[in-house]
Write a structure and sequence with these properties.
The chain is of the alpha+beta class. About 50% of the residues lie in helices and about 20% in strands. It has three helices and two strands. The protein has helices spanning about 5-25, 60-70, 75-85, and strands at about 35-40, 50-55. A two-stranded antiparallel ribbon has the order 1-2. Helix 1 (about 5-25) packs across helix 3. The two termini are about 25 Å apart.
Length: about 90
């Protein structure tokens, strides 16, 4: 069975983003709790991707705060991802 390029990239993005969050957690201030990347959906033109995360914190307020910290540090995560993955669209 032939696997499409986008499905392979979904797995690679998921692996690399979770590794960035694990190894570079010290650079993302305010990130608390257990954050895991559950799924990544890369667009067919390979220009955008939607990343789904699961945050397990001590409370719902802490989880919401961690999500907003992730959203505000999206540029940093994107930059770190571009250092690891070289692609052509």
């Amino acid at each position: 069975m032939k696997v499409s390029r986008t499905s392979r990239l979904n797995g690679e993005y998921q692996k690399e983003i979770s590794q960035i969050l694990r190894l570079r957690k010290d650079r993302i201030e305010g990130l608390k709790g257990l954050v895991s990347v559950t799924e990544v959906d890369v667009a067919p033109d390979l220009k955008t991707a939607i990343v789904y995360v699961s945050i397990y914190g001590s409370g719902e307020e802490e989880s919401k705060r961690s999500l907003s910290v992730l959203q505000s540090n999206a540029g940093f995560i994107r930059h770190q991802l571009s250092q690891v993955m070289r692609m052509r669209t």
